[in-house]
Amino acid sequence: MKKALIITLIILFSVKLFGQGTDDAFLFSQTYYQGTAKAMGMGNALGAVGGDMTAVNINPAGMGIYRSNEFTTTLNLMDNYTHSTYYGASNGANNMRLSIPNLGYVSAKQRSNYKPLRFTQFGIGLTRTNDYNIHSYAKGINPTSSKIDDYLAQIDGYSQLELQDAFPYTIYPAWSTYLIDIYHDDLGDYYGSPVPQGNIWQGQENTFKGRSEEWTFAGSANFSDRFFIGISANLAHVKRFGTKVFQESRVKGTETDFDQWSFKEDLRSDAFGGNVKLGFIFHANRWLRLGAAFHSPTLYNFDESWQTETESQILGVTRKYISPESNYEYTFFSPLKWIGSLAFIIGQQGIISIDAEYTNYGAATFKANDFDYSAVNENIKSTYGRTFNFRLGSEWALGDTYLRLGAAYYGSPFGLGETGSSVKKASFGISLPVSNSTTFDFAYELSYGKSFLYLYDAGDLGIEPIAQQQFKNNLAATLKVKF
After folding, report:
1. Are 152 and 170 in contact (CB under 8 A)?
2. What pTM does this model have?
């Protein structure tokens, strides 16, 4: 009974938790705003500035700046290049994507010229909050282990008949394709593999597409042209799909029956959810503006599917096993955010703005009606921690033309004082008037981040992580029409 219970728990864990773990808790909690070209050019440091639909997504009080109706739409071109290093070997891969990350409409109504309530506004907008498009490839010669070693460590103590029930998506397919077999020696039967324990080519290719975005429904008010408040209800959407292909092959000149094998994972995640945002902006005097905003946790309902394909080539014979498709629904809560903002007005020439954003990635949680996620949530809590994101922006007037500069630092999700998986951004932009009511804005942003990826757990044998450097080149063009 005890063994049967353990097998049942492993089945539930492998089927339901494949896409739900510490990595996904961070991935689906990240926010990198991709909206208007104005916001991009100013590093998205608009919490105390307002007057822009992406600013409304950061601080809904920013819509209180509007005195007329406005429509915006943005076209974005992103090139994502990933450089990977694994056991001294370097490889690069990239992808390019054209998208519309922003649509926005604001309706402003004047209430009075002399009473405290001067204007009210209502707005609807679409803002992309993250981009999941990535193509990465890494390959090197691992001198000490194979992924099969990780499999063998997991099945110690399991009979052949238990493998299919306990490991239907990973180890049983390896068994079915003769990557794992029964061997004999003087001590009896044991699990073994024709795959060498090290000195093999090993690598992985990841290809993913998708995005997260928010539809914002906001209301705001302007009091005496000094105090602005706003609130928004936001419908969040996540779509991510793609493949991971892990491969191992023998090194040329090695005497072994093993030729190569691969493990392919097809994943798809779809989610809908929502959150609420509150904020204010206060014009303290002619040269200083203050802003603050609160973002509630985002509640997502996820629908995920997963399927694996294992293929081996041993002694010139190719075998393939395709697993059944797994589907699962669960709930995910991303952590809340607090944002504090300052903006300094430099006469009639320009503005310098600063945003500081606080969040705790360790507060992300998974839930489901038919599974206890407490162990997973505890792992998230112990792995990730509190962090700050800082954004800096400026805008300078040259007649009717505006030049913009921006920079940002998104702190490590592993906690204060850590640097792993932090992201740095730099940007610039320009605003060109077409008429009294129409403006074209353009911006360019360069983003850089470095992370480490372990392909599997090799136990005492150890394994070197893949070091990944990611460069994103982002071009945006926004059409803005006032009426």
Report:
1. no
2. 0.90
